Amino acid sequence: MSDAETATISGPAHAPEDHVEGQEHPISTYLWVWFLLFVLSVGSYMVDYMQLQGLLRWSLILIFMFLKAGFIIAVFMHMVWERLALSFAILLPPLVLLVFIGLMTSEANYTFLSRLTFFGGP
Amino acid sequence: MSNEIAVDTGRSIDMVEGLPGIVSDWSSDQRAFKRVPWGKAMMWIFLLSDTFIFSCFLLSYMKVRMTTTVPWPNPSEVFALTIMGNHIPLVLIAIMTFILISSSGTMAMAVMFGYRKNKKVTGLLLVITALFGASFVGMQAFEWTKLIVDEGVRPWGNPMGAEQFGACFFMITGFHGFHVSVGVLFLIIMAVKVYRGSLDIGRPGLFTHRPGDYEEIEIMGLYWHFVDLVWVFIFAFFYLW
Questions:
Q1: What's the domain range around A113?
Q2: Cα distances (angstroms) measured from residue B56 to each of A98, A118, B52, B149, B195
């Protein structure tokens, strides 16, 4: 087997891959997201500082939280630029936590009522 | 970006985009995570498992808070500080939040300058990120000291209300602080590797024995951003709720 043939079989297999996999994006993208994260953090701190209460407080906390988490995962962790096979494999499994939250909520209500019944009261 | 990718057989296969790409990637009988270094895919898998660990902590916190018949201590008051005569609620936690977000920004910059093979700036940004992380842990130590010594909070009780407050607080912030500390350690190691040029010459890593590459900084960055991400959830659920 000549050198040329060897190169076609084993040569290109490793060399080109090393250079296509890094992620490079313009600095302005990062700076914008960085700025937005600061704004959102100020927002969530303000929720507490202004002592907002009730549904408004909880919805604002959750909105700011999910926006911050989304920006960090999407841009800082480069998830928007990954192929869907990876994004789905990582982002879908945590959804089962919703079931866990549901289970724990109904369990918590039961425990709370039991405590009131057996340990609570005057 | 070209629409083909070299695979280990030396042949190229078509890359399918969009939703059909999921099926084609997973059924390609080769590596499922294409255009991603192997270490990066594995870091993502690790972070996924870590997500479940922190979720278990936050869910158990949710449950004990829902089940207690005693009022929960108001975090806004517990973590208030008096600075120069002004009583500011939750101020230390706000500062810690901004520090961690700043460190996430410098980490993202480090990854970017790493791929540009700018050793000086990359190393400097890694060191700055490590300093932010260390100051975060320092503030956490201050916060723990204040709570334990001045306010008498213990894992089994506290003077402010529900007994479980201490257990949840020490468990959740302790585990997060441990993650930050480990991150700081690895940031320093990575900064040393960048400065001495290990990533340029492909010098094998101490633990992994794999040749060094600037991808390592991105993988390190994934971990660091994840630590910031967990703090976003702790901040919302434990401190603000």
A1: 92-122
A2: 12, 28, 6, 28, 39
- Based on the domain organization, do A78 and A48 belong to the same domain? yes
Q: Which residues of B touch A98 (CB under 8 A)?
A: none
Answering whether pTM is above 0.95, one says no
**pLDDT of B187:** 96
Is the minimum CB–CB distance between A50 and chain B shorter than 8 Å?
A: no
DSSP per-residue letters across A74-86: IIIT-GGGS-HHH
Q: Does A118 touch chain B (CB under 8 A)?
A: no
How many angstroms separate the CA atoms of B149 and B147, rounded? 6
Mutate to test the interface with A, among B11, B17, B35 (most CBs of A within 10 A): B35
Q: Which of B238, B229, B228, B239 is nearest to B94 (CA)?
A: B239
Phi, psi of B14 (to 5 degrees): -70, 140
Angle between helices A97-118 and B38-67 (to 10 degrees): 20
Range of the domain at B97: 37-240
Task: Check: CB of residue B186 under 8 Å from CB of residue B223.
Answer: yes
ipTM over cut 0.90 = no
Residue holding tokens 């967990």?
Answer: B230
- Residue B87 pairs with which residues in a beta bridge? B82
A33 and A69 assigned to the same domain: yes
